[in-house]
Design a protein that fits this description.
Layout (H helix, E strand, L loop, with lengths): L5 H4 L7 E3 L4 H18 L6 H22 L2 E3 L4 H4 L1 H4 L4 H20 L4 H10 L13
Antiparallel strand pairs: 1-2
Helix pairs in contact: 2-3
């Protein structure tokens, strides 16, 4: 008997994942949305705040696409970043940065606080890569 995968162990009632068959149209839409937002985030004519929001949304859409491709749907938004080792084989140097971005996104949404420059400083202090050097997996 094969032991369940890490994703399967997190699936079920009351857990952070639900099993749901992959949907090719949904996957394509998430990749399209993420790619478009990532391109817009690179536009230096946009404000830094807008670029952060676009980059975060792009990362979330692409990570969600990877999870959906595996046949799972998250019950919590942040889970898609923490599961990157299991969905895309990416290490903690990527998901920790994205988790920090998620926390910053929440502070912006719920408290009106956004300090993108501080995030860049925090990431560089922890040895993270600058966004331009993150792996492109899609």
């Amino acid at each position: 008997m094969t032991s369940p995968s890490p994703l399967e162990r997190l699936a079920g009632p009351g857990n952070v994942l639900a099993k749901e068959p992959p949907d090719a149209k949904e996957f394509a839409g998430l990749v399209r949305s993420g790619s478009a937002r990532l391109k817009d985030a690179e536009n230096e004519a946009n404000s830094l705040d807008s670029r952060f929001d676009l980059a975060y949304s792009a990362a979330h859409a692409l990570c969600l696409a990877a999870l959906r491709h595996q046949g799972f749907r998250p019950s919590k938004r942040y889970v898609v970043f923490q599961l990157l080792p299991d969905t895309l084989g990416l290490g903690p140097e990527v998901w920790r940065v994205l988790s920090k971005c998620h926390d910053m996104r929440n502070r912006t949404e719920y408290e009106g606080v956004l300090d993108v420059r501080r995030l860049g400083h925090d990431v560089s202090q922890e040895g993270g890569s600058p966004p331009g050097r993150w792996p492109r997996t899609f």
